[in-house]
Amino acid sequence: MSMATAMEAQGTCLVVDDSRVVRKAARRMLEKHGFVVEEAADGAEALAACRHQLPRAVLLDWNMPVMDGMEFLKAARAEFGPDQPVVVLCTTEAELSRILAALEAGAQEYVMKPFDEAILVDKFTQVGLLPDNAA
Fold first, then answer.
1. CB neighbours of 42 closer than 8 A, spacing ≥ 6?
2. pLDDT tens digit string along 58-112?
3. Which domains does the chain have, with CATH numbers?
4. Is residue 57 a contact partner of residue 13, using CB atoms and an 8 Å limit?
5. β-pairing, 11-16 with 57-61?
6. What is the value of pTM for the model shown?
7. Which residue from 8, 20, 100, 95 is spatially nearest to 61, judged by alpha carbons?
8. Euclidean distance between CA atoms 76 and 121, whole angstroms
9. Within a 10 A sphere around the Cβ of 99, how many other Cβ atoms?
10. Do you find a cis peptide bond into 114, omega within 30 degrees of 0?
11. Distance from the first to the final alpha carbon of the chain
């Protein structure tokens, strides 16, 4: 498999954040690793996007207007099941109780803000969205 073929095979990632700056930064990082990136500004937009075409992954902000990350997560799990899409919750919430609540609600992983490309790639590798090139 050529490098180009490997880069094309990651699927779609929906980046959900009320900050356009954060969405654009995450888009650049994820596109570099072969994802087709869609964007949503809140959980309601994200749910509509998932109903239109279910992405392979969702990078989900916690604190947003209209519908926050936890509300989206619970609605998505109720509608699409426990495994799809893979959700990486993105948050400034460092409290263990909040992180555990997110994992119990169905997030596969979480990343703290601010994040960089190395952290994002590591988390996406841990949940099987990217190949583990260290192996």
1. 16, 18, 64, 65, 66, 67, 68
2. 999 999 999 999 999 999 999 999 999 999 999 887 788 988 999 999 999 999 9
3. 3-126 (3.40.50.2300)
4. yes
5. parallel
6. 0.90
7. 20
8. 23
9. 17
10. yes
11. 17
